[in-house]
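Supplementary Data S3. Sequence and structure tokens for construct A.
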Amino acid sequence: MARTLRVVLTEDLPNLGNTGELVNVRPGYARNFLIPRGLAAVATRDNVKKIEHEKRIAEARAAKARAAAEELAKQVDGTRVTIEVKVGEENKLYGSVTSRDVEEALEKKGHKVDRRKIVMDPIKAIGDYRFSIKLAQTASAEIVVSVVPAADASA
């Protein structure tokens, strides 16, 4: 019986390899773990060609997404958003300002940014804060968030 089996990886696996690489693994590992989970395929000529083709398509898609993220980073960089919040005595906030609030404020300015990309801790006081938005590995932007007391409607 064969001591190793050549497989082509369909996903990046730590300590094993990256997508499209040919690796030798134990037959049981391939048969019981990698192949059933779709992480690898037996290295036939057709499978290797198919994986290489999918890898080229994924690289092109990633390059397109990276270019779009860099363009958005240029547009958003330096943007200043103002968020009005209810305050109590001594300008204490009711609750806090989160990435969801910042996402909504950016959307009002015409910038569509996913709140999971905004690197921030919740804001619990009035003032100006600087945060970064990590849009891609190579693209990030700095924004300024001003938290101000809401104008009271009864005044």
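Construct B, processed identically:
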Amino acid sequence: MDMQSHAGVDLDLLEDVLAQYQGQRGALIPILQKAQDVYGYLPPQVLQRIARSTGVAVSKVYGVATFYAQFYLQKRGRHILKLCDGTACHVKGTPVLATALEDHFGVQPGQTTEDGALTVEVVYCLGSCALAPVAVLDGQVMGRMRQEMLVRTVQKQVGAAGGEEV
């Protein structure tokens, strides 16, 4: 086993990113962004390696990674579904949509399906209140969502891309 591999995380993949920012002060956020591009999220081993390379305390690296919503500390699904739960969307049915997703796919907001196909996230206002309730699947905005339509759309998208059923 490669000495740079820790619990399934190949730290060799990070070396080009670290070399690119070697010695640059204030480069922590771009390093985290590029590391996340490489791994899809920021595993603990990656945060520790970034800390060692930059000379920044692990606690500060972790603090930055948890402060900004753009960073993820857990693996995310191949497909990302965001449910808006701002006031208009909440009143118009986001809780019912979340329940339908849980019933059909076995995933709650903030979780990823066991097969890694789908991550469901809750966001608090997408700025499309007139289309409430709103969901965004892989960047595609879907307004006036109803349970059956959402489940059908997610099933089609998630099943079509990987050929697997969820």
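The first strand starts at residue 5 and ends at 6. The longest helix spans residues 147-162.
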